[in-house]
Design goal:
Blueprint lengths: L2 H22 L6 E3 L6 E3 H17 L4 E4 L13 E9 L1 H6 L5 E8 L2 E9 L4 E6 L3 E4 L2 E2 L12 E4 L1 H5 L5 H7 L2 E3 L4 H9 L5 E6 L1 H13 L3 E4 L11 E6 L1 H8 L1
Parallel strand pairs: 3-4, 10-11, 10-12
Antiparallel strand pairs: 1-2, 4-5, 5-6, 6-7, 7-8, 8-9, 12-14, 13-14
Helix pairs in contact: 1-2, 6-7
This protein binds D-MYO-inositol-1-phosphate and calcium ion (CA) (2 copies).
């Protein structure tokens, strides 16, 4: 199946998953915490993941899945075709704001990003695309944003890392036009695609960055560990993505 046909299939699944979220969201949410008080999971996260996993397993039984919830959060390696799923990215926003969250899927082959999908459910905007396909918001093709330098725009940052000044990131914020914090990695990637921010620094798991990295790379952005090393798709990693110019400047 070509990338383009696969993308059309996944788009249908994600729009359906968005309808599922909006249906379930009308009822009582069941919220519980995982590793800490602010690390939440809801019945909606779990049901969306089950829905997407069932679609993939039904059609592509040979493929591997790395997904945030329900014991699917590690893989021995990235060989073959791997689907990375974050059923609700920004669960805290989902619980407290009922917006500013996204459903995300990344499709990788032997560790190379092929397709990315970030669905801002409440705004009805699905950002998707991949290598050679271009990047779209629903059916509208997007233009690549300007390759701005590190001082010439806004940075998205992780609140905790910024407060603790990890890797001296406050200096990046202070010498730029300022910092922003949305609380959903997916929406931070959308901001970069839209040219609203020039970069993003956070502490992310593979399902947080895999979909967005496919998309921003199509527009010439660079992404890596904050140490400059390659993304490892295994556990949490300090992460940076930025326009090529901003990335080169801050990583010097
Ligand atoms: C979280 C969000 C948040 C980021 C965290 C992620 P979740 O995802 O993307 O913006 O700072 O690192 O874990 O847990 O709501 O899917
Ligand atoms: Ca999640
Ligand atoms: Ca997430």
């Amino acid at each position: 199946m070509t990338s383009s046909l696969l993308a059309q299939k996944v788009k249908i699944w994600i729009y359906e998953a968005g309808e599922l979220v909006q249906e379930l969201e009308k009822g009582q949410l069941q919220v519980s915490s995982k590793s800490s008080r602010s690390d939440l999971v809801t019945n909606v996260d779990q049901e969306v993941q089950r829905f997407l996993v069932a679609k993939i397993e039904n059609e592509f039984s040979e493929d591997k899945i790395l997904a945030e919830e329900d014991g699917k959060s590690s893989l021995a390696d990235m060989s073959g075709r791997v689907w990375l799923i974050d059923p609700i990215d920004g669960t805290i926003n989902f619980v407290f704001q009922r917006e500013n969250f996204a459903i995300m899927i990344g499709v990788y082959e032997d560790g190379i990003g092929k397709l990315g999908f970030i669905y801002d459910v409440m705004r009805g905007e699905l950002y998707w695309g991949g290598a050679g396909l271009g990047i779209f918001c629903n059916e509208k093709k997007l233009e690549s944003p300007k390759n701005l330098g590190a001082k010439d725009g806004l940075w998205s940052v992780n609140a905790g890392m910024y407060a603790q000044n990890i890797n001296n990131i406050q200096a990046i914020g202070e010498s730029s036009m300022g910092v922003r914090m949305i609380g959903s990695a997916g929406l931070e990637f959308i901001s970069m695609l839209r040219g609203k921010t020039i970069g993003y620094i956070s502490n992310l798991c593979p399902w947080d960055y895999a979909p967005g990295v496919v998309l921003i790379k199509e527009f010439g952005f660079k992404a890596s560990g904050l140490d400059g090393l390659a993304l490892v798709f295994d556990g949490q990693q300090r992460f940076i993505a930025a326009t090529a110019q901003a990335y080169n400047e801050v990583m010097k």
